[in-house]
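Morning F.,

Quick status update on the modeling queue. The single chain you submitted on Monday has been processed. Sequence for confirmation:
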Amino acid sequence: MQKKIRYIYFLIFFTILLTTCIGYVQHLNMSQKMENQMAEKAFKTAIEMKYPVVLVFYASWCQDSLGFIPIVRAQENKFGEKVLFIKVNVDDEANNAFAGKYNFKYLPHTVVYDRMGVVFVEFTGIKTHNQMEEIIIKLL
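Structure tokens below.
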């Protein structure tokens, strides 16, 4: 009898855990889609409002991108009030037209715009925390 009760508790616990994980993954996918659809609109709005922008094109399958995105997020946490950071997943079909405007061949590809909407710096590949911080400080 106790084995059956333990088994039932295990099934209930496992079902709750699985449901929670599935819900979290769906939430991540939904927020990623929203972020991707909003990228071009946010970029245009920021440029119109004369706000500096760091635009990073990446792909989830690209190892360099996976290494660079945490660096970008750290800079976003530090300078997010002064600079808009936009991360664009090029694998998402919603971003094809936007990414196609930039003629890059390799990932990650970063374009930094000043307050006037002029390209301040553009590079392909990754930068260290210190290199990114130096670029942003010069931008400001």
